[in-house]
Design brief:
Elements lengths: L1 H8 L5 H20 L24 H62 L2 H10 L36
Length: about 170
């Protein structure tokens, strides 16, 4: 290729001279390859002038190509929509499975917390811990229930009276 490129751009030489030199090179190469048996090969430069040819429009071919392109575009769109739905379904399945695992984990944690609450709220345990801290059972009248109505006949332990607003 390099020999063809260098001879093509050389100025001042015609096609005939270049073709003759190329033929001589090919003959020399063949002699070396065939060990003395010479098969002549010749290089002919052909000049084809297509500048006067004009391509005639073919409306049938154009219509066929447009129809084919539209069919390929529709098929491609359908395949892409199917693929998108398929991968979204797979992703949704993975999401559902991860949510199921999260729900199972939360249920187990809730069960553990209920067991811990039941264990910590045992009256016997609370009583023994209170006695270790030096607490005693309340005396009658010490416990006041916030929902109960006050009994007028029982003496009150403490009362808070709001201060009267200052007059100006």
């Amino acid at each position: 290729m390099a020999a063809c490129t260098t001879t093509y751009f050389e100025a001042g030489r015609g096609w005939g001279t270049r073709a003759a030199e190329r033929n001589a090179e090919l003959m020399a190469q063949q002699a070396l390859r065939r060990r003395g048996v010479r098969t002549p090969e010749f290089y002919f430069a052909r000049h084809i002038d297509n500048s006067r040819l004009v391509k005639a429009p073919d409306p049938v071919r154009v219509r066929e190509m447009r129809l084919f392109s539209a069919a390929v575009a529709v098929l491609f769109s359908l395949v892409m929509i199917y693929g998108l739905q398929h991968f979204n379904a797979i992703e949704g399945g993975y999401r559902v499975e991860s949510e199921k695992q999260a729900v199972d984990q939360l249920r187990e944690e809730n069960r553990q917390l209920r067991l811990a609450e039941a264990q910590l709220s045992q009256p016997g345990r609370i009583d023994s811990m209170a006695r270790q801290l030096g607490l005693a059972e309340p005396q009658p009248g010490q416990v006041i229930h916030p929902n109960a109505r006050p009994d007028v006949g029982v003496p009150a332990i403490a009362q808070v009276t709001p201060p009267a607003p200052a007059a100006q």
